[in-house]
Amino acid sequence: MKASYDVVIVGGAVIGSSVAYWLAENTGFDGSILVVERDSSYTFSSTALSTSAIRQQYSNPINVKISQFGVEFIEGFRERMQKFYPGEKSPDLGFKEHGYLYCYSPEGVEPAKERVELQRSLGAHTEFLAPGALKAKFPWLNVDDLGGGSWGARKEGWFDSMGMMGGFKRGARAMGVEYIDNEVQGVTITGDKVSGVKLATGGVIACGLLVNAAGPRANKIANMAGLNIPVEPRKRHSFVFSSMTPIPGRMPNVIDMNGTFVRPENQLFLTGNTPTPDGPADYDDFETKHDEFDDYIWPTLYNRIPQFDALKVQQFWTGHYAYNTLDHNAIMGFHPRVTNFMFANGFSGHGLQQSPAVGRGVSELIVSGEYQTLDLSPLSYGRVERNEPFMEDAVI
């Protein structure tokens, strides 16, 4: 480790490693990059504890486009990463293209149809299905209380989260990026710029630019620079269960009206929801709330899929969303006054699927001062200071 780097990235999970990968690959950048990761085992990282899914069913065009690039990246991952695996086959991310199925109440039909039209206008394969069509396609689904559903017939599903992050990290390191197992405990400001970061092991690493990719701890890093962003950790509980009755056919990721989701995992099923109540969590609190499954999730599953009458939880875990309380969307780009402090934060559960486009966009902004591919400027930090939400309604 050197005493100074051109770019220091705080956080080395999927967002930080994607930024490192794309920046190192960018032909316009020839500087040094250091990634500081406080948990190199990634045991409690949002990446490792994610449910690892990707969809195009969003309410904002930019989020649809971000996911479209994400799918393109996932599908081409093995070929793209092969050069970093000399003498062996690069990993496949095991993309399960089963789609998402959103269930809607009768009152939610018209807004749902508008979202489907928007998504289709951008090239997505979403279809709106009336209750009869839903029942015909998914006979195991209870549609009695539904007004319809939107189904992503293609380019939606789930994949290997750690495989993606591992590919970013391996590629970044092969191109000269350094990783250290340490924790940033302070940010040094000189004038209107970050001049260095203080490490838990002592000492200060000088830097020309700092990227905040600290996930649920993003506001802690911002505070160290005298800044503030509306990002907090929120717990999300995941349960893997077995069912006495199998579900026939190709089951999508089913999203019920209250946000509870369920999808197949080989012979088992994965489920989760928005906890009740849903509020900020302590940074180190990963305790699972088991009554969430018994009191909220199972009744919802049984109502929507009556075959789920006899279930047994086989595995569980709890991760954190980096939840943006302003508008549930990412906060990206430079701070207007601390001019070399860059945000890549607040993904509200979408960070994994958005990481390919976000890393590419951040690298473009660093090198060129503007976005070259997707215009991610609607996600800029400025809206936080103006208190102008750029809302994303399709949050799970």
Describe what this molecule looks like in 3D.
This protein is α/β, with parallel strands linked by helices and 396 residues long. The chain folds into two domains: 4-52 and 162-230 and 326-386, 3-Layer(bba) Sandwich (FAD/NAD(P)-binding domain); 100-157 and 232-323, D-Amino Acid Oxidase, subunit A, domain 2 (D-Amino Acid Oxidase, Chain A, domain 2), CATH 3.30.9. Helices cover 28% and strands 27% of the residues. The protein is built from ten helices and 18 strands. The strands form three sheets. Strands 1, 2, 8, 9, 10, 11, 17 and 18 form an eight-stranded mixed β-sheet that branches. The longest helix is centred in the C-terminal third of the chain and has 18 residues, at 351-368. The protein is globular and about 65 Å long. The model has no long low-confidence stretch (mean pLDDT 96).
Number of strands: 18
CATH third-tier fold name of the largest domain? FAD/NAD(P)-binding domain
The CATH homologous superfamily of the largest domain is named FAD/NAD(P)-binding domain
- Return the structural class: alpha/beta
When the domains are counted, the total is: 2
* Averaged pLDDT: 96
Radius of gyration of CA atoms, rounded to a whole number: 21 Å
Biggest beta-sheet profile: 8 strands, mixed
SSE order and pairing:
Elements: E1 4-10, H1 14-25, E2 33-37, E3 53-54, H2 61-75, H3 77-81, E4 100-104, H4 109-121, E5 126-129, H5 131-137, E6 148-152, E7 157-158, H6 161-174, E8 178-181, E9 184-190, E10 193-199, E11 204-212, H7 218-224, E12 231-243, E13 253-255, E14 261-265, E15 268-272, H8 291-304, E16 311-324, E17 331-334, E18 341-345, H9 351-368, H10 382-386
Parallel strand pairs: 1-2, 1-11, 2-8, 4-13, 11-18
Antiparallel strand pairs: 3-7, 4-6, 5-6, 9-10, 10-11, 12-15, 12-16, 13-14, 14-15, 17-18
Helix pairs in contact: 1-6, 1-9, 2-9
